[in-house]
Amino acid sequence: MKSKITLKDIARELEVSISTVSKALKNSEEIGRDTKEKIQAFAKLYNYKPNNIAISLKNKRTKNIGVVIPDIVHHFFTTVIRGIEKYANARGYNVIVCLSEESFDKEVINMEMLANGSIDGFIMSLSSETQEKGDYNHLKEVTEQGIPVVLFDRITQEVECDKVVIDDELGAYQATKKFIDQGKKRIALITTDDYLSVSKARTKGYLKALKESPLGIDESMILKMPSMEMDEGAIKTFLDNKEPDAVLCVNEIFAVCGMRFVQKKGLKIPEDISFIGFTDGVLSKYANPSLTVVAQHGEKMGEEAAKMLIDKVESEAEEETYQTKILEPTLVIRDSIAH
Amino acid sequence: MKSKITLKDIARELEVSISTVSKALKNSEEIGRDTKEKIQAFAKLYNYKPNNIAISLKNKRTKNIGVVIPDIVHHFFTTVIRGIEKYANARGYNVIVCLSEESFDKEVINMEMLANGSIDGFIMSLSSETQEKGDYNHLKEVTEQGIPVVLFDRITQEVECDKVVIDDELGAYQATKKFIDQGKKRIALITTDDYLSVSKARTKGYLKALKESPLGIDESMILKMPSMEMDEGAIKTFLDNKEPDAVLCVNEIFAVCGMRFVQKKGLKIPEDISFIGFTDGVLSKYANPSLTVVAQHGEKMGEEAAKMLIDKVESEAEEETYQTKILEPTLVIRDSIAH
DNA sequence: AAACACGGCGAAAACGGTTTCGTGTTGATA
DNA sequence: TATCAACACGAAACCGTTTTCGCCGTGTTT
């Protein structure tokens, strides 16, 4: 077990000073040809690599970015992480992933753990508990310490920082409009409670489209699930009672469950009833019939967030100017609607 | 923007030495009551938190663990990460995630990036390219440097380190046996090329079960996909030609595609043809019919891997003893087979 | 020959902690 | 009163870098 070699080791071995070694390895003009070559050769031979931790301490830069998200077993979030990881890696950054598991406390603890020097900045999506509670002091604290934060998807207006979201309202609007244009009359929405910023926006888009149409709004056509957890019973009862001919769902799972249920009842998709979901994940692609969805472009979102964060981290300027990037959703047409 | 406060700041402010502050904050007996209280109060007031980087440098321990996996947009891997993250977090560790994207080079680069002090140990699953190439020098190098490595799922026997896998052979064996017991005669296998350690093991289990049965082995009932990428055409042709009455697939996607195809042909699942897949992901649960799978218990696997790694990291002893933990797969019965 | 420039290198501080080993003061003991 | 332990604290080394500054010797200039 040959342990890592340090500058000091090289210096001792070659009988020069540590500073000389350091400079030689950075190809400094200050050091003579011979010495430089000797040191560089030696370093290469013993595969010297500078210690990241020491450099971090010196530079006060870790080249790590912290990602705090509610859940990772969720297609959308994994695509975002992938986007973040790819972009960050290309710029020499590593990604530390922390899971809040929808818990406010975990979110706080994770942030505190990372905020003490482990990372240069945060990319986060708020836990449902945090959004429900409306307590964002942990975010404010880190921003006050000068640690940049980029919020994505589940964001809040109460914290001043960069943000990147998709236009959820527009996505829901377009989807609902699609239904209307196809002559659907009883258009339902299956969503979650309003405290989730995204659900709220989607509901808004749905309502807007209906309001603009001759159909008008029927609040009873909206099913609000109390949590992200599946409750098949609630969906079944709702679909049985309301007999919609089109259903917009705020995620894939609600949609797939709904489809399965109406199929069992003997209804034909998309003729008798159409479905559109949110999130372009595996489920949508491989569902039967395949599910039309409002794609959220998670990977793109991750990239954007990472870019915004790293740009801010690396900018010397202390501009206190924040931007919110709004990505356009796209409707991915599949077999759960007529086309 | 109030920047982080350091020991030095406290020392200056309270006109004591840095060492005194440090000791006081660790509640050392060495420091007098009054001084301690004064310092602790001050630290609390200004919300002092020690700098992780400095501590890492001193202790030569980062409390970070590096996870290098081929892909994150993959249900199995995300469950493993979740297991790792939960366990590691409970023990005060953070998780740095790096994606190799099935590329050998990226795997190497990522490991090198992290091996220079950023992490205390690795948890990895090999990229397909690495397994195909059979080059494990990057792994050997880090282990030689004394950095512990735990391999999971896609492992190799060529590197001496801790490992955790599920018994893929057993899983495939049990699934195949299930088919045989249910009277299926033409049992097919859809897998990937053999260089993936898991595919190999699963094929072995499939063959073993058939060999032990009166049915015997028919190599032509095995479809080897050249990559993990979906090729619906290949699956269709195969199913059309071979007309199996049971299909074992090494992942969910192959299975769901197969099901969709035979359903279009008018076959009934599970009466005419049964399906079993690997990986208990969302697809299986929400497929129509729901898919019976060999569950891999990713979260458990992640936990085990994290436990093994952290135990090794924290054990002073330099025992060079490695273990391979084999988790039992379980068959999750759903509607794609008779029951 | 004195002055100076400059190339080549080392000493030391700094990043922010921990920890060992003093050291000065106090009070008790011989 | 001299000795000594206990107490409370500080100095300094150390982790592995980077970087500023100073120094020495050589060669050139006047």
UniProtKB/TrEMBL annotation, chains A, B:
**SUPFAM superfamilies to which the protein is assigned, alphabetical:** lambda repressor-like DNA-binding domains (SSF47413), Periplasmic binding protein-like I (SSF53822)
For the HTH lacI-type domain, which residue ranges apply? 5-59
| Keyword check for Transcription | yes
InterPro entries per the record? HTH_LacI, Lambda_DNA-bd_dom_sf, Peripla_BP/Lac1_sug-bd_dom, Peripla_BP_I
State the UniProt keywords alphabetically. DNA-binding, Transcription, Transcription regulation
The answer to whether keyword Transcription applies is yes
SMART domains associated with the record: HTH_LACI
What name appears for this protein in its UniProt entry?
LacI family DNA-binding transcriptional regulator
